[in-house]
From TrEMBL:
Residues 59-372 form the Penicillin-binding protein dimerisation domain. Residues 417-619, 774-930 form the Penicillin-binding protein transpeptidase domain. Its main location: membrane. SUPFAM superfamilies: beta-lactamase/transpeptidase-like, Penicillin binding protein dimerisation domain. This is Penicillin-binding protein. Pfam families: PBP_dimer (PF03717), Transpeptidase (PF00905). Residues 957-990 are annotated as: Disordered. Residues 957-967 have a biased composition (Basic and acidic residues).
Amino acid sequence: MIVNKPKKKKKISRYAVLNILMIALFATFITKLVYLQIYKHENYKEKADISSTRLISEDAPRGKIYDSEGNILATNIQTYTLTYTKPSDDSENFYETMEKVFKILSENGETFEDDLMIKIDSNGKFYFDFKTDDADTKKIVEIRFKRDRGLNEEIEKELFDSEKTDFTDEETEQVNQELLKISAEETFYKLIKSYSLQELVNPTPVQEEGESNKEYNARLEAYNDKYEELSGKEILDEILTKYSLQDVRKFLVVKDAIKMQSFKGYRAVKIASNIKNDTAGIVYQKLNDLPGIDVTIEPIRIYPYNSLASGVIGYLSSIDSSKEDNYELRGYDVSSDLIGVAGIESAFEDQLRGTKGGTTVKVNSKGRVTEELFKLDSYPGNNVHLTINKDVQYAAEQAMEDTMERIKSIAPNATRGAVVAIEAKTGRIVAMVSYPGYDPNVFSVPGLLTDELSQEYFNPDISSYAEEYIKRTGATGGIDYLFPVDEDTGEREDKFDTYPKRFFNYATQGLLPAGSTFKPLTSIAGLMEGVVTTSEVMNDTNGTWSKEDLPGLILKNFEGVPNGLTDLRKALQVSSNYYFYELGYRLWKSNGENIEALDTLAEYAWKFGLGVDPDKQNSISLSTGIQIEENFGQVYNFTSWKKQILDTPMYEIVDALNQGIYYSYSFVPLNISDSDDDSEELKEAKTALKTYMKETLEKVGTDEEVSDTTKYAESLVPYIKKVMDLSDEFKASVVSISQKRTVDIDEEAGIISDAIAYYIISNVTVQIKTPGQLISSAIGQGMNNFTPVQIANYVATLANGGVRYKLTLVDKITSPTGEVIKEYTPEVVDTIDIPEEYLQAVKDGMYRVNTSSSNGTAYTSFANFPIKVGGKTGTADFSTDENYVIQGRLAYGNYISMAPLDDPELVIFSTIYDGKRGSEGATIHKAIYEAYFKERLLEIDPSYASKSESFRKYVLESPLKDNKEGAETEETTESSENTENNTENTNSNN
């Protein structure tokens, strides 16, 4: 019998299962690949193209700056720049790449690009390197620097709700004040931690082969926890076990630059600029080992004549962080673009700036360019042609420097000055000097602005300077008076502005009294007003001037020397103060002895460009016309003088009331000065009293002027009693004084009101209305303060008979291809018809100045000069004789001149701060005339060179060669190669 056995169920092989799984997996992969490569091909191709596409910007050359003869004063050369762009391959080791780059730079003597504001000096001290010497700007820059790096976020969380993002102005200011408390050293530590610089010595862990995700995550978490707990200082200490502090800072500089660029998308970070050809070649050979590194070509600005005319040309600098928003809106890359920050470079920034280009490229994972997709060429900026003549400018600068050196024995602080030379019949400025100057190459050529030089320029050691200054000048004021310590910074400050400032244009911004150089103008005013004739003789018998109707006003000649019988010509020759005091007095008397009469001399000065009528200044440009930044000084006039007094705090009466005595008035002390400890009611009462006093003074010279002292004193009593009632300090004084005498509050209020009334009406009102200021103005003193360019413009107006031209430093603007875009032609601003007789009398007097042996240097300079020159010295006081000794200061040495005298073509004004004597500047004028009239002098006297040392030195032996368009390449290349040496020499000279 056959029994049917049940069939055994066949088992599925493990290999079969594996095969099925493999087939399913590969099928999934193939399906996905088909989907990505075919169905979604175009979509992903576009994404890949976008992710690997970069725009490499190309800087545009700035327009050139030429002198009046076509010599190039500022141009550009193409140089190699080393850049770093973060590769898309995150596995690339940033620190390893940077170490290789730093080594290449070091071995080849290249300078590392370093724009990080935190510096470390030779003693290891951290400090902020500000590119400005203005205290307020420094604060703005420091706050912006810290905010850009997120240092405000921690403060905001501590002070306010951690979720808060919108802050009031008061809260923002509170945060800013806290930011300013963070020192440079603390900021450095915070950046060390923020940028995870521990990776230099302890890289972030990566998952090792065979390590589970859990194990790796645990190890990564431990790493992060460790460095989260460590402070920036502790992290730095760990790094310093393998690297020096300066090396650590290099890595931080690049990290910081990358962080700042990240806000703007893809940007390359400059590692080094202006590198040598050989260095560029070495980097090219090693590019495969330097992911993210590239070498590009870009223009840099150079100034072939180094410091020549630096005050006119200006310089370039990175964009101040306080102005970043404004420049970003104008299309600038604030992280890398340079802008003009002074002079023509600044004034014509929009013209000189070129149009940037760029190239759209594809890059691989190492950041290397693989394909160029699109290129937009950059376009140079427009060119600016100046009226400055390089040869005349050189003569002016060198003569100024040599003159200061020559007079050191009599003027030890003659370290600053200015010169302006103008074509009288056009208003074109042919030379303008501000001393000391600087070499603008230092700011545009990478590597030249060393930390030491930056410190000297923007953060000088005032303490060391103070000791040297006091020793050199013999100032008796003491270091704490002359150079007090600033409570906020702990550093000494230059209270009386004695330190020479290279970036302050003394020619266009320095305000100073004209002194006796103003006397020719007073002569014209006196003649035209008919208060004197060209032949009238005054008897200057004892060198002292006074008038019975002006009791107490006793004025003297320089050093009290009498001049005897003096007419206008002699008055100019010997600079008789007596004569011109008398003219000022007569101008006041003859015009009514009233308020309007006080402006008689000012009416003429305004015609000559020395200030403007304050009642018309809203409709009149406060400028000489020059294109660069300038101040604009004012001549004495009633309105401006009154405003100056009103703007001055009433220290005299405030101190007197606090002392309890004023002239013959004695009373219980009453403190009306502002104090934070006062109650709000007391503050308001004090303010009300002082406001009432000021309002009374504002009425002086109007129909509402207060003249009744008694009535005014009565009107003050309620204000005074209000302060008395609210002041605990006054009440305490009453208690104290009551122990010595009986105190009646009403009586005390009456005495105090009488004292204030006497101060307001008998003192300050008289001071405002006195003709004494007009009389002082007649010799160029008093409130008269002008810039050198203003004074030079006045002399030019005088020289051409009363026609005042708008001054210009620019002749024309041209396109890169030479087309004239704008031309600056002579423009008449104002005229005054001066009779030839009057003009000739003044010129005769000025000629005598230069041909009188009593006028020292002026005489030796021009007595035998082939071209007739008229001049006028001006030893202008800056303060009282007592202050001279205390502050170690001397008078301004001012000098004006014009030539040829019969038909002036060129006029000059020069000033030497603390120069002591105006005549010393004549040597500068002579050098300028010799350079300007070079050919004419040799035509008049072919042997002139053998007779004039200055002609040989400043004109014939000038080292400046022509640098015109044809010779540009050779000249600028040579200049670039020698820029560092030239800069060193220039700085030592300055």
